[in-house]
Amino acid sequence: MNLFIVEDSPYIQNRLIRFVEELPDIHVVGVSGEVQAAYAAILASDTEAMILDVQLSDGNGLQLLKNIKLSNPEIKVVVLTNHSTEANRVQALRAGADGFLDKSTDFEQIPGILHDWQQPQLSPNLN
Q: Which residues carry this modification: 4-aspartylphosphate (predicted)?
């Protein structure tokens, strides 16, 4: 799975990269801390999944989420934020997020979420 990280903190960027590098068959194809640069890079790459922060240096990650889902609804997105208010959670899910995590308490859930996304969906045998 090709993963793009949208996070403006270099510390969190590096932590996520190290975290994901230990997971089999997941490749970080890009990292950006800015909405505009991330949008262009995601559309130009073969991104299949994203880890997305809400507050970015040049804008709101939820607007980026909406734009990405309009352009490519197949991209899976987990929002990872320090701003884990109920309002942000609801907005993220309405914008198309496939998951919503709090950086301070849910960081360890990322491998499980990415692993689940890698598994092919089992369809019933219609024969």
A: 53
pLDDT in tens, 76-118: 999 999 988 899 999 999 999 999 999 999 989 999 999 999 8
- E strands, 17-121, in order: 27-32, 49-52, 55-56, 59-60, 76-81, 99-102
Whole-model pTM: value is: 0.90
Put the strands of the sheet holding 2-6 in their side by side order: 27-32, 2-6, 49-52, 76-81, 99-102
Q: Which domains does the chain have, with CATH numbers?
A: 2-114 (3.40.50.2300)
**What are 15's two structure tokens?**
């932590």
